Amino acid sequence: MASSNAKRCIALCAKLPALGAEACFISSPANYRYLSGFSGSNAKLLILKDKKYLFTDFRYIIQAAEQAPEYEIVKENPGMELAQVYEALKANGVSSLAFEDAKVSVKAFPEMKDAFPGVELRALGSAVEQLRMRKYEDEVEWLRKAAAMTDEAFAHILGVIKPGVSECDIAAEIEYHFRKRGSRASFEPVAAGGPNSAICHAQPSLRKLQHGDMVLMDFGCEVEGYLSDMTRTVSIGRPSDEMKKIYSLVLEAQSAALAALSAGKKAADVDAAARGRIAKAGYGDKFGHSLGHGVGLEIHEDPRLSPVSEDVLDEGMAVTIEPGIYIEGLGGVRIEDLCIVRKGGYEDLTHSPKELIEI
Ligand code: ZN
Ligand code: ZN
Fold it and tell me: What is the pTM of this model?
């Protein structure tokens, strides 16, 4: 039976004729991990219909052989990297090659052109990113595990939050929690209290939490390269009436978006379900970011859920639903779940409670 990586390569190769290419050349980390399983920091893949090469340097030879058994591993000789790829192209009679036009730098492109004489270079476009949008079930399982570990971290952190603890303490505790469980934070955790919670992606500060603060926490972890993403906002003691109202509104907006979420729906329409609710209550200009984004090997990937998105949601896509309202000087509320789009609905991977928790 073909492994997941092999299946992904088959799906990619099926797209090559339409691009006018016989093979493709991949060198961006998320894409080479997706197609090979290799998680090191340097690799180039040359993928042909019936042959696959992984080029990497001395440091990663053993790891590459373990993680990418379907690939012929080639050790790069310093200064000869592209010449070695060219040798493989010639050995297989490749005359047209799709490359990652959205990732290759202005400097690297002419170097590649010079190194591959007689080979037509074609734009790969977003062929790999499109495949990555719809998750296979093994990818869903890793996201599910990452989301479960994120729920556990939230339950743990509720016992840490109290007046006098700093935002940095919270962020550090979250990272430590993941590290001890063999994972790592999928991005630098956001922990923002009081007025700082009005800054969507606040950098944790040494400000100490106070009675009456809203505390917004946005974080996630990694399992097999797959990343989770969740936001919860809690209050220390009783929140002000306005914050209470805002919290209910954000929760309502999230429920409205979730109710609209299913395969076949336009991403912009799901965004509108939440945004309409918030705008109707008079807070439209306080929800300045998009509703959500795809998640996988990268924390922000396609599809995009925003008013200008042209993406249509499909089965197996992993997306966040994260409306928020931010009042400068007062505080903010965001509630974010990670969901898998399904036929007729969705599977919510995030199980942490959403009713306002008063600590
Ligand atoms: Zn997030
Ligand atoms: Zn997010």
Answer: 0.94
